[in-house]
């Protein structure tokens, strides 16, 4: 068993700290960890999928971005939240359209993470979706994230 396989097995550990460290270590391995992380994204346990998304966020490449975009459709809200967070951190501009669809997610933490991600990415075409979401959003925390994202868009339009 190689190092990536050993670490991938630790994504199933009972202890949260062990799972977190395994995800960090898999991300540090980079491309060699990709096959086991792709398998982990299909795991029936959402915690494993969540940590796989977290690990993918530490690896560069457009193939990784595609996997993260796909994770926005995960049945578990925690996985969708992490995918949005990672896409925002990575500033994956081509994910904006997919993120915009999640502004209507049933989970407010996902919507908040998506709003933050769209603010970090700051793609001007996201403005209508953010404004529309702001008109219908009831959660104050999400509303604040939407406001912040709109401000970030405005500031990005004025940068030389």
User: Roughly what fraction of the amino acids lie in strands?
Assistant: under 5%
Number of helices: 10
Class derived from helix and strand content? mainly alpha
User: Radius of gyration in whole Å, from Cα?
Assistant: 16 Å
Could you tell me the number of beta strands? 0
Uncertain spans, ≥5 residues at pLDDT below 50? none
Terminal CA distance: 51 Å
Gross morphology is: elongated
Give the SSE order as H and E letters: HHHHHHHHHH
Mean pLDDT across the residues is 95
Main beta sheet: none
Helical amount: over 70%
Describe the fold and architecture.
The chain is an all-alpha fold and about 160 residues long. The chain is built from ten helices and no strands. It has helices spanning about 5-10, 15-30, 35-40, 45-55, 60-70, 75-90, 95-100, 110-120, 125-135, 140-155. The termini are far apart. The model has no long low-confidence stretch (mean pLDDT about 95).
What characteristics describe this protein?
elongated, 10 helices, 160 residues, mainly alpha
Could you provide a short overview of the structure?
By secondary structure, this protein is mainly α. It has helices spanning 3-10, 16-29, 34-40, 46-56, 62-71, 77-90, 96-101, 108-121, 127-136, 140-157.
Secondary-structure blueprint:
Blueprint lengths: L2 H8 L5 H14 L4 H7 L5 H11 L5 H10 L5 H14 L5 H6 L6 H14 L5 H10 L3 H18 L3
Helix pairs in contact: 1-2, 2-4, 3-4, 4-6, 5-6, 6-8, 8-10, 9-10
């Amino acid at each position: 068993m190689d190092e990536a396989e050993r670490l991938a097995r630790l994504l199933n550990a009972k202890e949260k700290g062990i799972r977190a460290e395994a995800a960090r270590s898999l991300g540090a391995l980079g491309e060699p960890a990709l096959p086991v992380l792709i398998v982990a994204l299909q795991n029936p346990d959402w915690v494993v999928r969540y940590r796989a998304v977290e690990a993918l966020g530490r690896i560069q490449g457009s193939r990784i971005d595609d996997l993260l975009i796909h994770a926005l459709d995960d049945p578990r809200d925690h996985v969708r939240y992490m995918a949005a967070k990672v896409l925002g951190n990575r500033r994956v501009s081509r994910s904006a359209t997919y993120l915009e669809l999640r502004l209507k997610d049933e989970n407010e933490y996902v919507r908040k993470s998506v709003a933050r991600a769209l603010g970090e990415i700051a793609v001007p075409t996201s403005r209508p979706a953010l404004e529309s979401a702001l008109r219908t959003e009831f959660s104050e925390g999400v509303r604040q994230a939407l406001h912040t994202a709109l401000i970030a868009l405005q500031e990005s339009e004025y940068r030389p």
